[in-house]
Amino acid sequence: MDAVLIANEAVDSRVKKKKPGILYKLDIEKAYDHGNKEKKGFHLVKWKSVITGKKNGDLGIKNLNLQSKALQMKWLWKYANGNQLLWERVIEAKYIPEDKWMTKEVTTPYGVSLWRSIRNLWDEVKNNSKVKVFDGRKTMFWKDNWNEKGNLEELFPDVYNLVTFQQGFIADLWTLQGWNFNFRRHLNDWEVQRVADFLNTVEPFNGLQTGKDVLWWTGNNRGVHKVNRAYKLMDQTNQQIKNWPWKQIWKSRIPYKVSCFVWLLAKEAALTQDNVMKRGITLCSRCFLYGETLENVNHLFLHCKYTQQLWRIFLSRKGISWTMPRKVSEALRAGRKQEYWQKTEADGDLSLLQYGGEYGKRGTLGVLRA
């Protein structure tokens, strides 16, 4: 609801009637949204609620720490799939390569190394990637994650200790007749089954192809590293809460500022007298509009007698019979559910936030004046 529109209507009514009176202006923005800018205000929600996703019931501002990591992981993925760009050649010349994909971990004790901070995220990149083999000249048979079942050195450590060419590339071990493995000694009876399992694991390989081996990002169907997808993989808090009305709050056709205020109401975090008392300030909490009960979010915006009059005006104009829910979040969630309302005439779709500005100032004034 726009408090300015309500105040203007009250002033206009007094002017037309030519009766003296006192008008108390209810500034919702200052009273329930912002603190005193000249002094230290209240934190309405925890910072964790700010950086958690909207589907999880929070504000959805990105965690800059995770966003920075996702961007750095993008550079690592680009370097691993190197196209011999200038910056890649500089990194390759300055730091010792660990394998065909990445340099060794930077451990220099002096100076500030940008690449050192980026290189520290290589394990996270590998854990969310797999190698797609083409010519096999870049992929190590035992070390790299190219097999669908996982890293072969970790799956078959006993077989790994038996072979002679442990640092070999796929191109070195593959022939036209198939895999060519050399063992250090003859197999014992109890080792035969284990080697057979190993051969069954690598048997589905289809052979070498034209092109260079690539690091395939598993978070994308095209194998391309996407910063947003990497951010979501690292953000463990981004889990949708069942029945949280995030679409009614953020997808309605209303100003973003109104959506933010409705979000505060749904979280019951608006700065009402009840919430002020919870922050250690001694008050006599009474509803500002009627003065009979505690002033909290659900009472002030749903159940107060004056508020209910506004709801009746709106619902009667829409031809709807409505049973008011207990909380604002329930009212938002139930905006399209049959158990809370019944339409008495065909009047299009309903959104509880229409009255709060979806139709703009003229539409809202039209409802109030009717």
Automatic annotation (TrEMBL):
Q: Which domain of life is it from?
A: Eukaryota
InterPro entries associated with the record = RVT-Znf
Which is an annotated Pfam family here? Answer: zf-RVT
| Reverse transcriptase zinc-binding domain residues | 226-311
**What PANTHER family does the record tag this protein with?**
OS04G0516500 PROTEIN (PTHR36617:SF16), PROTEIN, PUTATIVE-RELATED (PTHR36617)
Protein name listed in UniProt? Reverse transcriptase zinc-binding domain-containing protein
* Source organism per UniProt: Solanum verrucosum
